[in-house]
Specification:
heterodimer, A: alpha/beta, 11-stranded mixed beta sheet, 16 helices, globular, B: mainly alpha, two-stranded antiparallel sheet
């Protein structure tokens, strides 16, 4: 039954509906795959075997009874360990939450349960989603299935690697500055950051509340659309949740049409700092879109050059506030120092022991940016830059229906390569951050392999707020054109994963 | 724009309730100085005429009916607490020297 793991979620859904396979068989095949390869990949922090098989068995029974089921019922999924789940630990990749179990489900998890999708487990991430390589996880890095010595991106490296390694057909991620899209790019998978507010954040452990967004991770554009429709839509538990209907995303992906569309190439997101092989694949994708009838125009977003700086003020400011709740009182770790343990000393010792270096860096930076005397110069200025970036997007979307850029400036770098240089690590997100600052949706899909290293390149599509459907419409066309040139999916070219090559 | 030095980091770490030893303070001060230097241009970009954006998609007056919704039970709320007594969170002494 190993072939089951190579099917898309859409194909699995069809085979389940036709009773060609059972949900238990599909779920067991993925659990077996996790068992076989996750020692090398380390995508999962927790495997939810019993519950996943139970849900699958219930789906099979319901189907046998002739019940009406959601199209994705019985299609298994992995969940980033930043999203809270009843009955499984949620760690956020941090020692401070090691062993903690949420007393409630995130709204997106409730929706997975309502659709009766078996949850395979919780995936690895940079601690509190702070990072671009998954190396900042307190529980060891995840490895890239294309090359086990390389990073799978971050913060959602676990979700992207799980999908790329055929351990799950679908996964949930979260994207604050690119944490869904950049891992998608470097693992040859698809990842979508929906419009801010399009998917409920209730139950996503907050990093930067005005930037965070949950979204789908998959191997095909259509599969992301299917999952997006499950998790999207209004949620009264999240006061920033949009009341708009989720939209006909699956229909847009199935239609896939770009003729007459204007696709804008962002002048500022190419050139210096971008790897040659990334740009070569990017320009090929532009030619394919042109050949399919799209009009390629160049747009300029001059304030994007300040996006990284604004992001590294706003994000740490919000994170320092959000992470104040880890105080050793209500949940998680408590470290009691020697001597007279007052609550203040307990907090200081708990947070020192429970947080890793990158989290501490961002808390200190955020505390600095928010402190009296600096607030206007730092946080206030960054919020103004945010306005300028929104204006850049508004002007660009007057000239183009969809914007396009490389998702990340380089392919996957080696584990450890940028760990001691926080600034170099931050530069990975230079192309993905503007979308978070402006709240617009973005999708990354595989654009091929870079000539110099044979590693995946990501193509990013951006649409105006609330126009997520355009991403699927254009993404599906580009995907099918690219797959025609490759003779099949890009992941078919990925090497076999051998247990001996990696290891925890 | 002000630089960030080791004393600043020590002060900020106290404000943020994170104990740091001398090595950590030295390292963090060096790293943060580089980061702050790289982002300080942000304060020079926008003039007074540019309004601040706090939220990407503004929504106003998000209300709900004033009725009791779903809540956690006392047991559920205490489930993850490091210590509890009599149905409440139990904390160490608030004041020193008692």
């Amino acid at each position: 039954m190993t072939d089951l793991i190579h099917f898309s979620a859409d194909t699995l859904a069809q085979k389940l509906a036709a009773k060609e396979v059972s949900a238990v068989e599909v779920t067991q095949a993925h659990l077996d795959r996790i068992d076989a390869v996750d020692g090398a990949i380390n995508a999962f922090l927790h495997v939810n075997t019993d519950e996943a098989l139970l849900v699958a068995a219930e789906v099979d029974k319901a189907r046998a009874d002739g019940d009406t089921l959601h199209p994705l019922a019985g299609v298994p999924i992995a969940v980033k360990d930043l999203i809270v789940t009843r009955g499984q630990p949620t760690t956020a990749g941090s020692r401070i939450l090691e062993g903690w179990q949420s007393p409630y489900d995130a709204t997106v998890v409730r929706r997975l349960r309502a659709a009766r999708m078996p949850i395979l487990g919780k995936t690895n991430l940079d601690e509190f989603a702070m990072g671009s390589s998954t190396e900042h996880s307190a529980f060891g890095p995840t490895r890239n299935p294309w090359d086990l010595d390389r990073i799978p991106g971050g913060s959602g490296g676990g979700s992207a690697a799980a999908v790329a390694a055929f351990e799950a057909p679908l996964a949930l991620g979260t994207d604050t500055g690119g944490s869904i899209r950049q891992p998608g790019a470097v693992t040859g998978t698809v990842g979508v950051k929906p419009t801010y507010g399009g998917v409920s954040r209730y139950g996503a452990i907050a990093m930067a509340s005005s930037l965070d967004q949950i979204g789908p991770v998959s191997r095909t554009v259509l599969d992301s659309a299917l999952l997006h429709e499950v998790i999207g839509g209004h949620d009264p538990h999240d006061s920033t949740s949009l009341t708009d209907p989720v939209g006909a995303l699956v229909e847009a992906a199935r239609m896939g049409q770009v003729e007459g569309m204007r696709i804008g190439v962002i002048k500022e997101l190419q050139g210096e700092g971008y790897q040659a092989g990334v740009l070569t694949r990017f320009h090929e994708s532009l030619e394919l879109l042109r050949s399919a009838g799209a009009e390629i125009v160049e747009v300029s977003c001059p304030n994007f050059r300040y996006a990284l700086g604004a992001y590294y003020l706003i994000m740490p400011s919000e994170a320092s506030s959000n992470l104040a709740k880890y105080d050793g009182v209500r949940f998680g770790l408590r470290v009691v120092p020697e001597g007279t343990p007052t609550i203040e000393r307990v907090m200081g010792a708990t947070r020192a022991a429970g947080f890793g270096d990158e989290v501490k860096r961002r808390i200190i930076l955020g505390t600095y940016a928010l402190s009296a005397g600096y607030y206007d110069a730092y946080y206030g200025s960054a919020q103004k830059v945010r306005t300028l970036i929104q204006r850049d997007f508004a002007a660009a979307f007057e000239q183009a229906d969809v914007l396009v850029s490389p998702t990340a400036p380089t392919t996957a770098f080696r584990l450890g390569e940028k760990l001691d240089d926080p600034l170099a690590m931050y530069l990975n997100d230079v192309a993905t951050i503007p979308a978070n600052l402006a709240g617009v949706p973005g999708l990354s899909l595989p654009g091929g392999l870079a000539d110099e290293d044979g590693l995946p390149v990501g193509i990013q599509l951006l649409a105006p707020a609330r126009q997520d459907a355009r991403l699927y419409r254009v993404g599906a066309v580009l995907e099918s054109l690219l797959e025609a040139t490759w003779g099949g999916p890009l992941l078919a070219q990925a090497p076999e994963i051998t247990q001996s090559a990696g290891g925890k | 724009m002000a630089e960030i030095n080791r004393d600043d980091v020590a002060h900020l770490a106290r404000l943020a309730h994170i104990d740091m030893n001398d090595d950590e303070l030295d390292r963090m001060a060096g790293e943060l100085a580089v980061i702050v230097d790289s982002i300080k241009s942000v304060s020079e970009v926008a003039g007074d005429d540019v309004p601040a954006t706090s939220h990407p998609i503004p929504l106003s007056n998000v209300f709900r009916e004033d009725v009791v919704g779903e809540t956690l039970s006392n047991e559920e709320a205490l489930l993850g607490a490091p210590d509890n007594a009599d149905g409440r969170f139990k904390v160490p002494a608030i004041l020193d020297g008692e």
